[in-house]
Amino acid sequence: MIGLSIRPRRRLRYLAQAELWRIPGVGLVLDGMRQIPIKRGAGDAAALDRTVHALKAGDAVAVFPEGRLSWGERVRARSGIGLLAGWVPDAGIVLCTIEGSTDYVRFPKRPRVTVRFFPSAGGPLRPGEEPTAFAARLLQELRDRVPVTPAGRSPVIGGPPRVRRALARTNALTAQAPPVSDPAVPEDALD
After folding, report:
1. In angstroms, what CA-CA distances link 186 with 22, 65, 123, 152, 179?
2. Confidence of residue 159 (pLDDT cuts 50, 70, 90)
3. Neighbour tally for 108: CB within 10 Å
């Protein structure tokens, strides 16, 4: 996906976890590619505001409705994509599935990765539709095409132990996040 964001045509801007900017050198690269950091689980109003400005300026912004890797689990959809769709109704929504990416770790078998772009069969945000319901509808449409699949030779749902420990730490930190100053942004927005 990083390769798609640096192509010379219309570049994708991603909402990426703010923790990536703490890695030496990575923050500079992400800033150079105009990616948008978001504090997951905190209802980051500033990141959503930057995303709204980017969408209104005509930029293409990639959002993962689950807010993180699923590691084979059925993670719930976050409301952020629904909020953005409501705030910038003129922005088109293009869904994308990536199938076969979990096969990369199954060496020596050559993976067959398929990337498909398509419009939502259910259409854009409907009048009166809640942002969370819209996000869940989009995520279900993606899962109908490509089911959640754990990766690896011996796939473990939820990821290997180190991943589960890291997720537990992240969940503990986001549970202690200070309250959001903007009441229009729910805490689960684009975690």
Report:
1. 25, 14, 23, 34, 10
2. low
3. 4
Average pLDDT in the 164-186 region?
59
Distance in angstroms (rounded) separating the CA atoms of residues 189 and 170: 16
Domain boundaries, the chain: 2-174
Please give the Cα distance from 50 to 54 (Å, whole number).
6
Quickly tell me which residue has 């076969």 as its tokens: 100
- Distance CA(109)–CA(72), nearest Å, equals 20
| Per-residue pLDDT band at 187 (split at 50, 70, 90) | low
CB distance 111 to 104 below 8 Å: yes
Percent of the chain surpassing pLDDT 70: 70
C-alpha to C-alpha distance for 153 and 111, rounded to whole angstroms: 13
Q: Given a cut of 60, is residue 34 above it in pLDDT? A: yes
pLDDT of residue 186: 53
pLDDT score of 53: 93
Residue 75's Cβ-side half-sphere holds a number of Cα atoms within 13 Å equal to 21
52-56: long-range contacts at Cβ-Cβ below 8 A with a sequence spacing of 24 or more? 52/84, 52/87, 52/88, 54/13, 55/84, 55/88, 55/91, 56/88, 56/91
In contact, 79 and 132? CB cutoff 8 Å: yes
Give the whole-angstrom CA distance, residue 6 versus residue 2.
7
DSSP structural state of residue 34: T
